[in-house]
Every structure is written in structure tokens, then in C-alpha cells.
Amino acid sequence: MTDQVISPAPRQADLDSEKRPLNLSRRSFVIAAASVAGGGLSVGFHVPALADNTPAAGNQEVNAWVVVKPDDSCVIRVVRAEMGQGTHTGLAQLVAEELDCDWARVSVQQITAGQNLARNRVWLNMSTGGSRGIRESQEYVRQGGAAAKIVLLQAASNLFGVPVAELSVTKGVIYHAQTGRQVSYGQVAEAASLLPAPDVKTIKLKSPKDWKLAGQPLKRLDTAMKVNGRLKYAVDVKLPGMVYAAIKACPVFGGKLKSFDDAQIKTLRGVKAVLAVDDNAVAVIADNWWRAKEALNALPIVWDEGENRQITSESIRTNIEEGLTSNNNVFADTNKGDADEAISKAHKRIDATYITPFVSHACIEPMNCTALITKDKAEVWVPSQNAEAALAELAKSTGLELSKCEVYNQYLGTGFGRRGGFQDYVRQAALIGKQMMGTPVKLLWTREEDLTHDFYRPIGHCKMSAGLDKEGNLVGMQIRVSGHSINAYSAPHNIKDGKDRRQLQGFWMEPHDAQYGYTVPNLKIEYAMRNSHVPVGAWRGVNTNQNGLYSECFMEEVVHAAGKDSLEFRRALLKNHPKHLGVLNAVAEKAGWGKPTSPGVYRGLAQFMGYGSYTAAVAEVSIKGNEVKIHKLVLATNCGHAVNQRMIAAQVEGSVAYALDTLQSEVTIKEGRVVQSNFDTYPIARLKQMPHIETVIAPSFDFWGGVGEPTICVVAPAILNAIYKARGTPIRNLPLKNSGLKIV
Amino acid sequence: MIQLNINGQDQQVDVEPEMPLLWVLRDTLGMTGTKFGCGIAQCGACTVHLNGQPVRSCSYPVSAAVGQKVVTIEGLSTDSTHPVQEAWLELDVPQCGYCQSGQIMAASALLAKIPKPTDKDIDEAMTNICRCGTYQRIRAAIHRAAETGKGIGSVIHYMADGHETTTIDSQSTFNA
I need a surface site. Which of A218, A510, A516, B176 has the fewest CB within 10 A? Predict the structure, then answer.
């Protein structure tokens, strides 16, 4: 592999096909906000989709997705962000599969937001979240690969003077068997670029069962530069004359900057400026970042903390607890039969309330953005999950037209939803850049700033009741979720008639996305919105994580009360939903459910659905004193089509580490601000805590599901259910330290 | 002026003695392979070698590095052929990759000290944070680099159509 295999978005537009600049005014876009799960904010441009798929004349661009160079190297364009999830490699596999090019000669090029805009969004949606990278791009990128192959074959047909039907392709070489002639893609690419693009309706995609490149556990394309330190992340950008910014926003959410006294620090070595940013932050600019940060720490700042200073975790929880029993501002998303009566008349009744705290994304690459603003151009280098949202924020913050803005999105040091819905770091960098006109400024947050100014996974409580008949059958269930709404903070227009269904993700009755799998004769599922002043957002897995935990941990309590087997009880309830049942059976088989464990080792089980995929888990756990050891996790997923098993396994393995946050991490609020400030007070899973992980991929080849998120929601409940088996009492109040336990 | 020896090269830097080595590397010398993650020696993204010992450079004053041999990810090998880098490539360890410079420096220091580490040795030495959760492959790659014959990488049961089961261990390699 060479360094050329990957190319983050370049600064200079190297696409010479920008033949139709749109000169859109700022009025021509809206921040539309997406309702899709896990996505958060996206940008809706009022321009037609798939407007212009024909390449400019006289270049190697076969179409928007495919460039074949004279040396036969093949560049596949992508617009989704790469934050470790492997989407760039997976999308390239899908294009290359249809194109029939030589995989060894494939590289990936990331398109900028400005390039996408200038070509009427020919590359469509750049937003990368909600486990959508593959499943919502697969059709049009495969069509792009197939369309490129069609015109390449036509060009060869024209060259040889033979019908296309007599041609065949192997690894980017076109053969005419009858005459023994051959020509490579690179030799006909320019001619192909002049041909009309085929009508997309005439393109027949390959059946996934015939795939040779897609559907294979290929290695990632972007590994080489990640083992030698040469991959440049946004935090590594260096521009001529660049200066560095450190920033502090008001520690109390909603508070304002009152004043600062820069007399003491403006003469410190390297300090160039001390600036107010928006109405709530102050930045120090210096000739290196450490000097900026040190000077900022020495800067006396007066904040107007406002009324939110009174808020604590306790006051937030009191409000949420009220929602568990209140009749006000509550809606029932499902109300089948009469759950109240069924439970009250049941032979046995089970009640429990579960509590999950705020948690932080803690992206390993802290928030950062490098901006260069001049009076007629605004450019940023950024790690964003949505380069178009960054572009919109840049235009808004600078007052420049969209066409005068550009976003060079870089490889992300993780995203997890933090860098998708909100482009706050872009806004700050742009506002600093405006005050440093013509000088490039790299804004980098400290870890402390990052942990205390996140958009947190919201706090939530869930009160559940169930009734069993004499035979131990489940006759009724009530589920009442109370807590902070993500939509209320980020996309209030997605709340219809006061009903925020997104908070019940995974408890939905409708199929395909996040369907509740159990059939319960009398079932009531409700949500009580109880918001706080804390900013909340999509946190990898979003509401499926908490809802999966509530559902599966409580189901285990019901199983226990019924005196039945965890697997058999769930199997009976899932009989109407074969895909849910399928992954449960797969995980049970591979984990050896029912077979003896080592002495002192207990198993726990969970299944749930999110992001269009079905997942299930079996955990093996032992407890010594207050120490929990997680020995093994077997995790099954049916994501419909499996584009790359190796990368699916990487996402599943990574989901385990991320899910441990749910068990051991917690953000708390005191005096209106976050208490935890760094990894000494906010624990992150370490290598020694990790179990042995086995991934079971059980695709059913009849839908496209997500991969990056859906596994997380079954990890924590499977572990908790194993702990329940070991201790005999359930854990209802997270994190584990509230029960005197820690993961070792 | 502070005299440093970095990746075998003598360098002079005009910085405050208390400036952390990390920021001298990144901002003064432009060597950005070493990463910033927390600033308090908790995450290990900034790990470099000082006389062969792994050190968290975000919390290490540059003046303390004087007279020591500093090795960064850029100097571990010139062509990614250090056994740890080769194992990382072979097992496709990185996801986002941001922490991997630090992980590789920590792993190479471990192997220099303990050529055939046990799982317990790995547990104790590898305290760096990987937010993507590549830990299982990190463990396997260290065993691979050490040629201990131990350590399971990814275990994948592929149940296509609910019938055939293929168990894939990432210690095998796949090429199209």
C-alpha cells in the first residue's frame, strides 16, 4: 500500500469539472434538520438531487464517482466522512464491484462540501451518522460504478468496432475474445468521459449473491498511514503563518461572557490576541497552542452564569422522576389491549424503575477547526460528520455566500454523533478567523473543554410493570420512559403534537428500523418529556442504548419471576418476528447457551433492534467481591447485506468498548455545570477490561441495515443480566459504582 | 536554546523549559504523528520513547528530555517495517487511527522490554485509551509481533443464509 491510497479532501479544487457554479445566495439554503435516528442536524439545499452526473469533457473522470487515470489506477470518490467505521473502504468495494476494476489499483478521494454544492449535489448527502453510510448510499454508488462500466465498455466497443455484447471485463481490462484484442480502462477513460451517461433506470445492478469484491473481508484502504503517524487529521493541519487558539466557554450552559482582563497575559511570550467569541466564550491566540492554553488559564474571566447556576443532577432527576407517574405531558406511542387491567389482575406482578445517566462522547481527537477567513472567502479544515452542515455554519458565521465558503473535511479521530448535529467548533473558529482576517487560525479545545461542552447522551429513567399468569406467561407490560429529549434540544420541529417518538427508538411497532420484537397481548409504551438545561445530542446508538437496556434488563426480571429460561422465554415472545428470533438463535448457538460454564461464571442474554439491523448478545461474567470480570461476549447481527465481514467485526468489537461507558461512566451536574473534566474523573474502557469477543454475522440478504451502532444496545444489558444471575439481584441504577461494583 | 535528539537527529529549539515535549514536537517541529488527547498523561495518545522507555509527552517538560534519545512514531522505522507496525497492518488494527501512534509506541516499548509478553504483561503495559475499541486486535497484534503463537484476533462466525458457517480468525490474511 502506498500513501496515495487515501486522500483527504484537498484544499485546491482538483476537480476540473466545476463547469456550472451555482452562485447560490444565502437565502437558497435552509438548515433543515433531519429526523433520522442518530443523525441530528443536516443541511437541506434547495437544489435538485442527481442534477449533473455527466463529466466535463477531456478528462479522466468517467463519471462523478469514478476517475480512471492513464496508468489504470482508479479513483473512487466518496462524500461520507471516515471516522474509523470503514465506510470509505466499504463504499469503494461497492463501486468497484459494479465497475469490475482492479481492486489493487483503487484509491479513495474525499469530495469537499464546496465541490458537491458546485455540482448541484451530484454526490448527494454528506451527513455521516445514524449508521447510514453504507445502507443509504449503496444504491446510488453501485449505480455510479455500473454506469461507469457501461460507458467504458461503449468506448471500447467504438474503438474496436464490435458490439458491446461481445466484450468482457476482468480487473479493469476489456477483452474481445473473437479477435483477441484487449484495452484497459485507463486507455479508454477519456473517450468514455465524452459519452452520454446511461439512463439510471436501465442500469441493472449485480445480485449481492454474485459479488466478488463486495461481501468479502477485504483489508481497509486507509491503514498504512495510520501505523506510521503520517495521516493528517484536522488537528495536524499546518498553514503558512498559522496561529493557534485555545478557548473557554462559560462553564454553565446558557451562561454568558461578562468580561475578561487581558492586562496580565497579553505580554506573555507568543500571545497575539485575546478575543471574545460569540457572547459566551473567550479565546487566546498565540504562536503555539500550549502558549495560548497557558495564557488562557491565567486569564481572569468573569462569567454571567445566570439562573442555570442553581441546577444540579438532583434537581434534574427530581423533574424526571415526576415524569414516571405524571399524567401531564405524557403520550402513549403504543396502547394495545388494556395493560393496566391485565397487570392488576395478573397472578404475579413485577415492577422496576431503571436509571441511566448523562454520558459524554469523549471523541479521542478533541474538537478543533482551522479557519482562514478573508473578506471574500472562508475556508475551514475540520473533522466533521457533516461537511455540508459545516459549510452552512461557516456561511452563517461569516456572512459570506455559500459559494464563497469551503470545507476541507479531514479524517476524523472518532465522531460518535458529536461532530454531526452541531458544528459549534466551526462557528467558533469562523468567528475567531473573522477577527484575525487573512491569518489562518487553528482552534483546538482542551480535553476539559471537550468534556464540559459536549452534547450529552441524555439522562433517562424508565418505569416498567409486567404481569404473569399462573403458567408464567407474560400477559401485560407497561413501559414509561421519562427523560430529556434530543429533538427538543436539536430539532424541535421533529416533535409532532408534543410527541417525540424518537425517544422511544427500539420500542416502535412498525417494522424495518427499530422495531420492538416481543408480542405482548396487553402493552402500553409511553414517553414523558422532561428536559433540562444540559445540551443533549446523538450519542452512538442514541436511544436504542437506553431503551435496549430497559427492555432487556426488565425482561430478565420477568423471566426470573416466571422461573423460566432466559432464552426460551424470549423465543416464545419473538415468534411473530423471525428476524429478531433469528439473531437470538444464532447468538445462543455460538455462545453455547444452556451448556455448562466454568465455575463462578454466569451468562446473560439480550436482543434488540436499531438502525435497521437485528442484534443479540450473550455475556459471560464472574464477580469477586466488588470486581466484575467480563470474560466473553458473543454478538450476533443481521444487517441484511454484509459488505465487509472484517470491518463489521471491527465495529462490533468496538461497540463493546463504547458500551462500557453505559456501565461505568457518568456526567453529573453541579452548579449548572459538568463536574467531570478529564479521563481521571470520566473513565473510558481500557484494554485490560475487555472480554474476548466473537462476532456472529448472519445476513439474510433481503434488506440493508446499519452496522456502526446497532450492537451497542445489547452489550450492556447482556452484561447486566449476567451480573444479575451472579448476584441474584438486578442492577437498576447506573453506573455500576452505584451498586458498589467496578469492571476490572 | 534547548538541545534535543529526536529520531537520531540533533535539534535546537527556543522554547520555555516547562513546555511539554508534545507541543515542541507538534507545533515547534511540525512532527504531528504524536497526538494530543487529554493533556494529563491519562490517554497515552502522546506516547514517545525516551531512551527506550514509553513516556507520555503531554506531561513531560521538554527540558527533562535533554540528553535523552527521543524516538517518535516518525522514527520508529522509516518504512513501517517495525514488527509492531507490520503486525498492526496484518491484523488491520486501526479504526479511526488517532490513538494508534501512541498504542504502537507503547507496544514497541513493551516488546523491547519483554520480548514474549503474556496477556497479563499486555494488560499492564497497554493502558492507552482507544475510543474505537480496537483492543482485541491490539492484543492479538502484540502477540503476532512477539511471535508467541498466542492471542486470538477477530473471531467471526459468518452464517450466510443461516446455513454455512465460516469461522474467520483475523490471523489469517485475506486478499482479493
Answer: A510
